[in-house]
């Protein structure tokens, strides 16, 4: 089963989407910040990432996180 | 520099020759020659007069004297004429020159004339004394004494001759017989009588009978026949020998045959010499007496010539000296005149004499040099100041900020161009007027800085007509002089655009944030509602329909809010209006339709005073602006008890269209009225403060205006939109639509 990673700083939305996706029968994980998201991404690579661009209170925004993940780990300092 | 050679070059040749003739050196040479000549003449002629000799050389000397005198007089006349001409021409220093010439001439001439007069007088007195009666008498007496002496000598020898003849006559007969005896007697007589010679001779034959004192037997010289003839008549004849050194007497002796006696006695040579000298002196005296007038004339001529020579030479030398003194002073005067005329490069020649005049010339040159240097420095400083002033003026004229210089009493002294433009009045014509009269808005700041001059007064001032008021940021600083304000500098700038831009930027930023903050909770609400509907609808057993309807309502309204926020957000990002030619009447009626439907309890009305007005605008934006104004009016009506009228009026004014919303609500607040169009300024209990801000932004984008005023003739407000219009033009479509709308009921 393909796993979906949800990255959003709003806990309401994050948990809600996670619940909806589970309702629909997907495996879902969520992360509230770029650090958490990077850790989750590295721990187990998801099949799909639902990513908020404006990550309030994180070191990286959504695009930064995604560039960090898609390029080689060299490009990502975290 | 006074260039004399240049001056001379312009002259003609005779003038140049005259210059040489009248030159200092030649004049002095001629004068010296004349003086020498005069002295020589005097010496020579005086000697000649004493000697009583006149000769051709004296005449030559006189001619030479006259020639020298003539030359001197010519030079003198030339010099004096030149001085007088200069005086007439009014040349600098000529007056002094003339005075000096007369002074020196006088100093030289007066003693010479005095000496001449006295000398003449004394000479005459001397001559008179010489030729007086006593001298004449003395001389005559001397001559007579001399003659008397000689006469007496002759008488003596005559008496001796008579006595001897007598003696010889008485005793001679005795001795005739004896010649020796006779000779001895004769010798005795001769010795007794002091004679040098005694001869007895026969007059006819010249035979000497006896002689004493002669060495020879014959008479050295027989007396002349006339003497013998005279003696024969019985007289004693006395004669002198040829050189007057002795006297002889001849007498006839009383004897037969007739004999004659000749005796001789020498005259004392000293006495004879005295007599001769006396006679010569008398003769000279008489000759002089005879020539007395001629002598006087000669002396006078010589003296006059010499005196004139000396006098003329003295005057000439005086002239030269006067020239020497007057020339540097003349130079100084001419130079001073040129300095007065502004020529500070002028220099006078510095003589090497080292006297006061030379010192004055040096001091003058130093002074003009220093003056020239100081003037150059002053001109330099003035040039720098002028350059700085022009730079400052250029800067002041070029800056966009208004700058006004005020005097210590707040009157306008120096405005720049930008100040006139910003205050929309020609401040140059208001110079001297008080700034508070010209621009009353400035008065509080002016008063503040006058009260506390050490601190500049800074503030924002609104200036201009109610429509299109400009905000000026004003700073008034005092120019302090001894801690008293000497004047004020007012600088101000139009910050209207700046403030507007700042507010716009702040508003846009806040609008974006609000949109984000509103949209953030909307998403979980919508998601939650949809999840409730999808997940839990199956589990609800009762009134599934009610559950679903509630969820749908939530989802629908959240969607509405989301769309509204989207629009708001889009608007906050200030989209450029899509301008098209639109009918304002149509826009007004469409806006009113929505309000009528939404709030039927209000009495809405539309007044079209100028039908067919068209403007180049964004129909959607102008509609929104009108909607905002109508909603504000509705809120104001709701806030006042008994109010229910809102009127939308379209009128034309001055090339513009005026869309006014007039209500009879609570009206505008008394305070903060000017800031009502700023974002988040509101006086409504639940207002956002964005309505009028949006309206203002729309109007700014349309180059239009927004006016807030009291409603005419009553409570409430009148808010007007002013839009530049196009010319009225028949527009069929618009007419049809407005016609259709006009048909709608007012309520």
Short summary:
The complex is a heterodimer of chains A (78) and B (747). Chain A is an alpha/beta fold and 78 residues long. Chain A has 3 helices and 3 strands, in the order βαβαβα.
Oligomer: heterodimer
- Strand % of chain A is 15-25%
The counted number of beta strands of chain A is: 3
Major β-sheet annotation of chain A: 3 strands, parallel
Helix content, binned percent of chain A: 40-55%
Our count of helices of chain B gives: 20
Notes on the structure:
The complex is a heterodimer of chains A (78) and B (747). Chain A is built from 3 helices and 3 strands. In chain A, helix 1 links the parallel strand 1 and strand 2. Chain A is globular and about 30 Å long. With 747 residues, chain B is of the alpha+beta class. Chain B contains 20 helices and 17 strands. In chain B, the strands form 3 sheets. In chain B, strands 11, 12, 13, 14, 15, 16 and 17 form a 7-stranded mixed β-sheet that branches. In chain B, strands 2-1-5-4-3 form a 5-stranded antiparallel β-sheet, with helices on both faces. In chain B, helix 4 runs antiparallel to helix 5, helix 4 packs parallel to helix 10 and helix 15 runs antiparallel to helix 16. The longest helix of chain B is centred in the middle third of the chain and has 49 residues. At the A-B interface, helix 1 of A face helix 15 of B.
């Amino acid at each position: 089963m393909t796993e979906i990673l949800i990255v959003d700083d709003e806990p309401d939305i994050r948990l809600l989407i996670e619940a909806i996706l589970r309702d629909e029968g997907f495996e879902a994980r969520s992360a509230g910040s770029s650090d958490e998201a990077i850790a989750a991404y590295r721990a187990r690579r998801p099949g799909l990432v639902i990513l908020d661009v404006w990550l309030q209170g994180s070191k990286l925004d959504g695009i930064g996180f995604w560039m960090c993940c898609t390029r080689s780990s060299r490009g990502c300092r975290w | 520099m006074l260039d004399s050679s240049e001056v001379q070059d312009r002259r003609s040749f005779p003038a140049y020759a005259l210059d040489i003739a009248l030159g200092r050196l030649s004049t002095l040479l001629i004068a010296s020659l004349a003086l020498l000549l005069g002295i020589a003449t005097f010496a020579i002629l005086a000697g000649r007069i004493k000697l009583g000799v006149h000769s051709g050389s004296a005449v030559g000397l006189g001619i030479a004297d006259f020639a020298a005198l003539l030359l001197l007089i010519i030079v003198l006349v030339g010099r004096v004429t030149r001085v007088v001409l200069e005086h007439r021409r009014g040349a600098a220093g000529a007056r002094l020159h003339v005075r000096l010439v007369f002074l020196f001439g006088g100093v030289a001439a007066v003693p010479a004339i005095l000496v001449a007069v006295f000398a003449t007088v004394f000479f005459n007195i001397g001559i008179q004394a010489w030729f007086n009666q006593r001298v004449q008498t003395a001389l005559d007496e001397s001559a007579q004494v001399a003659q008397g002496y000689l006469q007496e000598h002759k008488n003596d020898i005559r008496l001796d001759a008579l006595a001897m003849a007598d003696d010889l006559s008485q005793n001679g007969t005795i001795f005739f017989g004896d010649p020796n005896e006779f000779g001895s007697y004769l010798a005795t007589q001769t010795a007794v009588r002091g004679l040098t010679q005694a001869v007895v001779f026969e007059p006819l034959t010249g035979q000497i009978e006896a002689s004493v004192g002669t060495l020879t037997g014959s008479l050295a010289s027989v007396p002349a026949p006339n003497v013998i003839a005279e003696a024969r008549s019985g007289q004693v004849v006395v004669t002198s020998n040829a050189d007057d050194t002795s006297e002889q007497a001849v007498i006839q002796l009383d004897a037969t045959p007739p004999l004659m006696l000749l005796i001789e006695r020498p005259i004392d040579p000293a006495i004879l010499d005295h007599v001769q000298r006396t006679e010569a002196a008398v003769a000279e005296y008489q000759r002089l007496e005879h020539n007395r007038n001629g002598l006087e004339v000669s002396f006078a001529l010589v003296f006059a010539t010499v005196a004139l020579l000396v006098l003329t030479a003295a005057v000439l030398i005086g002239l030269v000296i006067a020239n020497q003194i007057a020339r540097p002073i003349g130079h100084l005067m001419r130079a001073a005149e040129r300095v007065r005329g502004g020529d500070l490069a002028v220099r006078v020649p510095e003589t090497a004499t080292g006297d006061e005049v030379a010192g004055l010339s040096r001091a003058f040159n130093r002074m003009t040099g220093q003056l020239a240097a100081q003037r150059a420095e002053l001109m330099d400083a003035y040039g720098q100041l002028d350059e700085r002033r022009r730079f400052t003026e250029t800067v002041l004229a070029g800056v966009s900020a208004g700058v006004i210089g005020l005097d210590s009493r707040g009157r306008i002294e120096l405005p720049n161009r930008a100040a006139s433009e910003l205050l929309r009045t020609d401040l140059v014509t208001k110079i001297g007027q008080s700034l508070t009269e010209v621009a009353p808005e400035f008065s509080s700041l002016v008063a503040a800085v006058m009260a506390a001059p050490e601190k500049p007064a800074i503030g924002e001032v609104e200036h201009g007509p109610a429509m299109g008021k400009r905000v000026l940021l004003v700073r008034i600083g005092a120019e302090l002089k001894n801690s008293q304000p000497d004047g004020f500098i007012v600088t101000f700038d139009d910050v209207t655009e700046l403030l507007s831009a700042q507010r716009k930027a702040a508003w846009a930023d806040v609008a974006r944030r609000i949109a984000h903050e509103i949209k953030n909770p909307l998403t979980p609400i919508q998601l939650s509602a949809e999840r409730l509907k999808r997940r839990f609808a199956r589990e609800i057993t009762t009134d599934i329909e009610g559950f679903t309807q509630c969820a749908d309502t939530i989802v629908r309204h959240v969607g509405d809010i989301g769309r509204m926020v989207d629009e708001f957000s889009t608007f906050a990002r200030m989209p450029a209006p899509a301008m098209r030619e639109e009918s304002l009447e149509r826009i007004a009626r469409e806006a009113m339709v929505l309000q009528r439907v939404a709030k039927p309890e209000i009495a809405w009305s539309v007044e079209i005073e100028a039908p067919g007005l068209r403007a180049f605008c964004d129909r959607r934006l102008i509609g929104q602006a009108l909607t905002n104004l109508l909603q504000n009016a509705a809120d104001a009506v709701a806030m006042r008890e008994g109010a229910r009228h809102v009127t939308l009026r379209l009128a034309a004014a001055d090339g513009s269209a005026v869309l006014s919303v007039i209500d009879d609500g609570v009206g505008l607040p008394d305070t903060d009225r000017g800031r009502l169009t700023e974002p988040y300024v509101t006086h409504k209990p639940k207002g956002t403060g964005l309505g009028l801000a949006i309206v203002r932004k729309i109007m700014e984008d349309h180059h239009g205006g927004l006016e807030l005023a009291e409603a005419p003739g009553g409570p409430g407000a009148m808010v007007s939109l002013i839009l530049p219009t196009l010319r009225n033009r028949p527009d069929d479509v618009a007419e049809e639509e407005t016609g259709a709308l006009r048909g709608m009921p007012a309520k």
